[in-house]
Amino acid sequence: MNWTREQLKSNAKLMVKKNWFNCGLVAFIMALLGGSGSGGRINFNYSGEGFNMQEQGADAIASNLGGQWAHYIIQLMPFIAGVAALVVVLAVAIDIFFGNPLRVGGNRFFLHNIHSQGVLDDLTFAFKNQYINVVKAMFITDIIIALWSLLFLIPGIYKSYQYRMVPYLLADNPELSAREAMDISKAMMEGEKMAAFVLDLSFIPWQLLSAITLGIVGIVWVNPYVEATNAELYTAVSQKGAAQYY
Predict the structure, then answer these.
(1) Cα-based distances in Å from 90 to 84, 97, 135
(2) 59-65: Cβ within 8 A, 24+ apart
(3) Which tens digit of pLDDT belongs to each residue from 186-234?
(4) Per residue, what are the HEC states of the chain?
(5) What is the rounded distance in angstroms from the CA atom of residue 48 to the CA atom of residue 153?
(6) Which residues, 6+ apart, have CB-to-CB distance to 86 below 8 Å?
(7) In 3D, which of 191, 204, 187 has the Cα closest to residue 239?
(8) What CA–CA distance (Å, rounded) separates 234 from 183?
(9) Exposed, middle or buried, 159 (CB in 10 Å: 0-12/13-18/19+)?
(10) Which residues contact 133 (CB under 8 A, 6 or more apart)?
(11) What percent of the chain has pLDDT over 70?
(12) Model-level pTM?
């Protein structure tokens, strides 16, 4: 199915207007809690020189920084680093086990809103249908994109567009494995990645307006508008990956 930016965005506006409050609420929750994970890895080394200072070295630094208080702060650095590491681990865990399934549910809401009217219960869809499989598939997809991003920025962006439809596919078919969902998404986005990139760029003026209004315009219009447009894009390219289901 051929599509244009104007067509998708026009359809999206209609879809948001017919169910504006729910669309805004779901998009806000997705933005707040359902962001995709970076998949990045942070290593903390508690046995390095920076944290295992000799008393003499710590005293010297404390003297330069202002005496006893600085000395106590230096002594607390391993604890502070440990707390920071725990916060990072908890944030990643929340994103994997809660954020990503919520994102899939939000996508299901916007897909339903195209042909009928999405309901808030769609948000919890992944938690009640193949939850472990959805978590696994999203995690593997995020990791693969992150690993490609470690090479250079461009390969990571390329893979993110190639696998853009994975959460939508899981919203439609939560039993799909990570490999199946990625293969189907790859087929769907064949020849569509640059057009999808330009589609994303077209929202920059709206994002700037949202920033100027401290996010108010984003909450009441831009976020649901973008999510609805992405759902329209999935619908437009879905036939290209249909053969992968069988």
Answers:
(1) 10, 10, 16
(2) none
(3) 999 999 999 999 999 999 999 999 999 999 999 999 999 999 999 999 9
(4) CCCCHHHHHHHHHHHHHHCHHHHHHHHHHHHHHCCCCCCCCCCCCCCCCCCCCCHHHHHHHHHHHCCHHHHHHHHHHHHHHHHHHHHHHHHHHHHHHHHHHHHHHHHHHHHHHHHCCCCHHHHHHHHHCCHHHHHHHHHHHHHHHHHHHHHCHHHHHHHHHHCCCHHHHHHHCCCCCHHHHHHHHHHHCCCCHHHHHHHHHCCHHHHHHHHHCCCHHHHHHHHHHHHHHHHHHHHHHHHHHHHHHC
(5) 30
(6) none
(7) 187
(8) 15
(9) buried
(10) 174, 175, 176, 177
(11) 80
(12) 0.80
- Let me know the angle formed at the C-alpha of 230 by 165 and 214, rounded to the nearest 5 degrees: 125
Six token digits for residue 185: 């998404």
Residues, the chain, total? 246
